[in-house]
Amino acid sequence: MENQGGFIKDVVTNTNNWYKVGLQQIEWQKKIQGTKCMVTRLSKSSKYKDVFGSIASSTVLGDVKKEEFPYIVLINLNDMLKLYQKSINQLDFMDNESVLKLGDVLTFNSAGQVFRFKVIDIQTFSETGFILNRYTISGFTEVNSEKELD
Predict the structure, then answer these.
(1) What domains can you pick out in the chain, each with its CATH number?
(2) CA dihedral 84, 137, 22, 125 (to 10 degrees)
(3) What does the pLDDT look like over 68-116, one tens digit per residue?
(4) Which of 28, 65, 67, 111 has its CA 20 to 30 Å from the CA of residue 80?
(5) Long-range contacts from 24-31, C-beta under 8 angstroms, 24+ separation
(6) How far is Cα 52 from Cα 78, in angstroms, rounded to an integer?
(7) pLDDT at position 47, please?
(8) Nearest in space to 71 (alpha carbons), one of 13, 110, 27, 102
(9) Is residue 56 within 8 Å of residue 46, measured between CB atoms?
(10) Closest by Cα among 112, 96, 116, 119 to 148
């Protein structure tokens, strides 16, 4: 019997299997290298969300309706950057879960400092039915010590 798909079908199938194996490793990487953060998102019922959309989170985090939940992301602040520059550079990280949305604010502690970043871009890739998201986050310029938060 003749192969109906030719050799391209076999190559695509094998490539998709490699993608699947690679995407399954992200969960393991998050356990080993992940950074625990708190995600803050304006709730859908917030009037600010209706008016401003995803930009509302960057300016309105006070007494408005919001959701907060813990999340683990694969980011690394160990790059050699100018002092205090770490908080304002854009960072990219990959994840195979579609939990974060545009405008979400990520807050986490690192080396005695509290960092806040906003999700400003999400790119989604899929070749195999499994999803890979590339999130771009941009830092807020303020940096506070943990002692000031208590």
Answers:
(1) 6-149 (2.30.110)
(2) -150
(3) 899 999 887 666 565 555 566 788 898 988 899 998 999 988 777 788 8
(4) 28
(5) 26/74, 26/94, 26/95, 26/96, 27/96, 29/74, 30/72, 30/73, 30/74, 30/95, 31/72
(6) 34
(7) 60
(8) 27
(9) yes
(10) 112
Q: Give the torsion sign (CA, 86, 87, 91, 93).
A: positive
Could you list the beta-strand ranges (E) of 78-143: 90-95, 105-110, 113-126, 131-139
Task: State pTM to two decimals.
Answer: 0.71
Q: State yes or no: pLDDT of 65 exceeds 50.
A: yes
Residues in Cβ contact with 139 at an 8 Å cutoff, skipping those fewer than 6 apart: 86, 87, 88, 89, 90, 91, 115, 116, 117
Q: What is the pLDDT of residue 149?
A: 42
CA dist 29 and 94 (Å) reads 11
Give the end-to-end CA distance of the chain in Å, rounded to a whole number: 73
